[in-house]
Amino acid sequence: MLFYEKCSYIFAKKELKTLILVFFGVASISILDVLSFGLIVPVFQVILFNEIPNFYFFKINNFDMDINFKIIILFTFLLIFLIKNILIIYFTYFSIKSLQNMSGKISSRLFNLFLTQDYIIYLKNSSDNYLQKITTDVGNVNNFFNGLLNLIIESIFLIEIEILLFFSNIKLF
User: Fold this and answer.
1) What is the pLDDT of residue 170?
2) Are 110 and 134 in contact (CB under 8 A)?
């Protein structure tokens, strides 16, 4: 809870909601990514070898695979990849734009905070110190949230790949 309190101190409520939306959007993109990767082998097994893959949670027997069925499966597969890539582009743009807007608002709030301080405080500190806090420290916050976003993306992707491998090769376990 300490992390959320620190974030709520830095960000406004609207910015926190946007940040949470970015995290959930990226998590859903990760799910679509694993789904599209997991469909590669079954789709090509149907198209190239004329056999329906056996999944351990359901089986299809006596199914006629004509050329129309293969075309429908191929176009569905391509549509899933197209939708996934469009969503990846959109959420990447949205997350970058959101983090840039947040860092700009934080810089503006910090600058306004420095402007409202007493003149005696300015005499005690150098102007380089204020400039560093506005530019470098805000950039560090932006880099932290970019790194955290990438860590969450990669962790979710790794867990989903492990789940996919578990269900696709359940005989090993």
Assistant:
1) 59
2) yes
